[in-house]
Design a protein that fits this description.
heterotetramer, A: Ubiquitin-like (UB roll), five-stranded mixed β-sheet, 30% helix, 24% strand, B: alpha+beta, Aldehyde Oxidoreductase, domain 3, four-stranded antiparallel β-sheet, 5 helices, globular
Chain lengths: 80, 159, 159, 80
């Protein structure tokens, strides 16, 4: 599945977008745990104050994900 | 209704004319526009412009949803949002919101509502530049998840 | 600050640029504009334009006083009012109010306040045309003397 | 003194502006009484729902007037 990162989270992970295997469990929280295992910077980036979207719609940690989803992690918004 | 996210600057007259082009919009009694511009200071002191990051696709969809929600909440003839992204110098135009309504209260309230919701719930992230370095702006909302809740499920909108 | 009363139509871009021309206005974070236009109906049915009469001298002075009062009440960088008079067809622009402020709430509230006060307390009288005849519009305020009280004495303003 | 009329009041009196002698008493109400004595249309025009200004500043019936003042009578405003 395609996973995108924005703002502080993009800068901390050092990537804008990656391809990930379907996590176990196949939920947003499962994916987040899998990503945080990649290293200290990933853990820092995704530990707190993170919002997520599945297929460009805001979602929760318990939201299920499937292989063809686009998931995104980003901090609280500060636009306008 | 129109939504646009782009690095390009905009002209007031163009957006006003675009907002009023629809037949029912051109006949409305009241038109309100809001323009947000880069301030040259923050709480710490002077700054040297900002940089805005967005989520192509999701940002536009959120703005579109915001307009639909405003139309359910207020009696509007039409409305539009244009938001710039990328590096913007001090005093540059950032965002434009326009609303057309039969009565002025609806036009004022809808434009103000759109800006409030936009600030706390549309996927755009701001960096401020100062002394050659850029710093992400911290979100002011105490519960940002709750603030964005309306974007989760379109069926919940307009309640 | 600027005030203008004239039969001539106006362009949004010109008035926006004029509002923002002052240095502190050009640096403000928020700009709100309101435009009022002739609706093609009233409570009784469709109308065929309006006609506005004013009191040259007193009308401009009242508008100027209104802007000063708004500046005392809200944190504004600048503000302007342009009002047309004479015969105006359906959908024509009637009035423009623009406000510049460091923060958007002040810009919104001041523009809304100016329009509310203008409607009930600035010497302008409206006729509506229908079926070839014109009828004076009745004032909606229940106590018009009280509504205009703020214009009596400049020392009372900004209370 | 110069006296101006606007809107319905202008149409009912049939004049935009007239020159008047200083009324007795020399107040807005004194002037109004003097004008209403001119005829039925004047009485109708100035009887109720009339606002007045002295030198382009809104004023009351008891406001004094002098020979070089500009006084105006007009109905409640309906602009914007």
């Amino acid at each position: 599945m395609k996973v995108k990162f924005f703002a502080q989270i993009r800068e901390l992970t050092g990537v804008e977008e990656i391809e990930c295997d379907l996590p176990v469990p196949a939920t947003i929280d499962g994916l987040r745990e899998q990503l945080m295992a990649r290293g200290a910077n990933w853990q820092q980036a995704l530990q707190t104050n993170v919002l997520c979207a599945r297929n460009q719609t805001l979602c929760d940690g318990v939201t299920p994900v499937s292989a063809d989803d686009e998931v995104a992690f980003f901090p609280p918004v500060t636009g306008g | 209704m129109f939504v646009e996210v782009s690095p390009n600057d905009f002209r007031q007259q163009d957006l006003y004319d675009r907002l009023c082009a629809a037949d029912n919009a051109s006949r409305s009694g009241a038109v309100v526009t809001f323009t947000g511009r880069v301030r040259d200071y923050n709480a710490e002191g002077s700054i040297d412009g900002i940089e805005l990051e967005y989520y192509p696709g999701m940002t536009e969809a959120a703005l579109q949803q915001l307009l639909e929600q405003a139309q359910q909440r207020f009696l509007l003839s039409d409305a539009g949002i244009v938001h710039r992204v990328g590096r913007l110098p001090n005093h540059a135009q950032i965002v434009w919101v326009g609303t057309c309504a039969p009565h002025r209260k609806d036009a004022f309230n809808a434009a103000s509502y759109i800006m409030d919701m936009l600030k706390q719930s549309v996927p755009i992230w701001k960096k401020e530049w100062a002394n050659g370095a850029a710093q992400w702006v911290a979100a002011t909302s105490t519960d940002s998840q709750a603030a964005m809740r309306w974007l989760k499920d379109t069926d919940e909108s307009g309640a």
